[in-house]
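Progress report, Aim 2. The chain analyzed during this reporting quarter is listed below.
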Amino acid sequence: MSASAIMESPVELHQNERLNVPTPAQQPVEFDLSIIIVSFNTRDLLRECLTAVQKEASALRTQVFVVDNASSDGSAEMVEREFPAVELIRSDVNLGFGRANNLALARARGRYFVLLNSDAFLAPGALGRSIRHMDANPDCALGGGLLVGRDGSWQPSARSFHSVTGDAIILTGLAAKFPHSRIFGSFDRTWADARISSPVDWVPGAFSILRPAALRQTGFFDPAFFLYYEEVDLCMRLKRAGYSVWYWPDIVITHIGGESSRQLKTMNFSSTAAQVVLWRMRSTLLYYRKHHGVRARLAFWMERTLYAASILRNSFSSNPERLARKQHFRTQRALLLQAWKDTDGGRTSPPRPW
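Predicted structure tokens for the chain:
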């Protein structure tokens, strides 16, 4: 199956947040789980992911989708050749995270839906525990598990909703400096015991289990978001509809993305890293405008002011490291200004693919 390859027009955001969000029709339930994996040029990781899914799902009735976002590394061909039971959806363009998942969500026929990154691997018992938790918590629309790196290191697995103050704490480095503070460690909940289950605001999209009935009420992922904030927006809508979101630490997922993303934290931006930062900034503005209105401008000015202060702080030194920092924050500021222009202050999602 091919998705449309045409370039889309900009998406206008409205006060009614559901105007642009596709709402699913009720499908007959034929499986315990529908598992959806979105992939973009991750062939070898995707193979490992699907192998782990096969082992974990052997005792369950599962429907597995792979949505390939126009990969050029042979990912789709590998799935066809090595995993013939998988329902492969090919897109001619990179749809981003949310819209790619929406393609499979519209066809899913499981009692629950599982979203899994291609660089995320299920630990033994993860799917069975996910089902039991959802069965035991009928008001839960979406649940997540404990994300760990290859080395077993903890990754942020349950988070609080964004606020201008909270984002400022992260950007200034206070969150990293005082992780055990309930104030400074609020966003990633680094103050909390990761071994304890808890209702939370939202969980990262590397793994989640969703209740179809809740999605029929709120709609799928908002296509205005190409990358970043899709799951935050969805969890916000689910919670406003009266559902809960849960974090369960006995569901363990090894996630490579958390490890590889740390490699991007360098003062010398590559074009790829700059593009990813621009995507994050666009999505930030779209999210704030959609859910907080004029606070989108406040979020923009907060971030711009912090970059300006960092440029100024590093301007009176001949130290090469300080000069590199100055250039880094200049690049950040320029990207932020571009994001503001691209989205008309968070009012419009640019044509995709971004």
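The longest strand covers residues 244-255. The chain has twelve helices and twelve strands. These observations will guide the mutagenesis work planned for the next reporting period.
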